[in-house]
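Consider the tokenized backbone below.
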């Protein structure tokens, strides 16, 4: 089950990293991937987007490893390494946040930074707001906090009705491969990636709405350093609204716009993305910043 087909690895990636397992919300076994630095100085936890999975970050993780940063790449339940059971499903926002925090608690003695791509930005921001002392910093990469694409009204109505009977019906994501990138090699990879998620459940859509409410509520604030990476030609998210929201949550956020770039900067600008993350992590890990203990994940 944990074998990674070569078709699920981005172009040029030959090392799929080490795969291991931990226990998430309600003791659910979940697999994750790790790219360990030879001489680790920093630790980064990465959360993927709605259609992607953890291998999409491997090019950046491998560059980070060469600079002393070990990356833990979690796959959301229903995605990637954890896709076999309830693909595209998410029982609740609490379940996803607790999955992240159950993993974090297993590494409670080590300072850790949090990073996320696209839809994963929703989960990362909600998690950081609920557990701010667990993280030294937050990096949001073209985060889906304010999407520019959406389901049709018909699909929304059908999903709402399906929640009455359990919410297990699935609906197509409102994204096509051409929205990610125009680079032929990466576009071909995305089109043929056997692990790419194309449908999600009504429960997943409800979870998305719940996460949105957690970081858009009045008074939501972060004190940890935040790095926001945006792509100028992004058609999946609304850059202006995302930047405004992030600055509301963390007024001192560092915002970097990649000129002439599409949503998937983790592919097209991988070296720049990794270098910006590393600089952010280094700055946040400065001895001037005080550390606080990691709170245990709730058993809810």
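A designed sequence for it:
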């Amino acid at each position: 089950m944990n074998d990674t087909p070569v078709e699920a690895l981005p172009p040029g990636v030959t090392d799929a990293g080490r795969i291991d397992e931990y226990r998430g919300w309600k003791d659910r076994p979940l697999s994750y991937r790790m790219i360990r630095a030879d001489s680790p100085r920093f630790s980064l936890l990465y959360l993927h987007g709605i259609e992607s999975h953890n291998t999409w970050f491997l090019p950046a993780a491998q560059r980070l490893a060469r600079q002393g940063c070990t990356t833990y790449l979690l796959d959301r339940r229903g995605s990637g390494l954890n896709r076999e059971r309830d693909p595209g499903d998410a029982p609740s926002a609490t379940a996803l946040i607790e999955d992240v925090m159950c993993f974090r608690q297993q590494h409670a003695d080590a300072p850790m930074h949090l990073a996320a791509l696209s839809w994963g930005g929703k989960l990362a921001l909600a998690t950081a707001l609920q557990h701010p002392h667990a993280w030294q910093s937050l990096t949001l990469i073209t985060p889906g906090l304010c999407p520019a694409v959406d389901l049709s009204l018909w699909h929304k109505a059908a999903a709402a009705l399906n929640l009455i009977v359990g919410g297990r019906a699935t609906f197509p994501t409102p994204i096509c491969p051409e929205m990610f990138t125009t680079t032929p090699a990466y576009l071909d990879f995305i089109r043929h990636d056997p692990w790419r998620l194309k449908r999600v459940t009504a429960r997943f859509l409800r979870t998305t709405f719940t996460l949105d409410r957690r970081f858009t509520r009045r008074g939501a604030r972060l004190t940890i350093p935040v790095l926001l990476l945006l792509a100028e030609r992004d058609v999946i998210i609304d850059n202006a609204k995302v930047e405004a929201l992030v600055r509301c949550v963390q007024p001192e956020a560092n915002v970097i716009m990649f000129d002439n770039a599409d949503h998937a900067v983790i592919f097209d600008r991988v070296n720049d993305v990794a270098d910006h993350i590393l600089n952010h992590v280094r700055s946040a890990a400065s001895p001037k910043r005080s550390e606080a203990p990691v709170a245990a994940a709730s058993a809810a």
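The chain has nine helices and ten strands.
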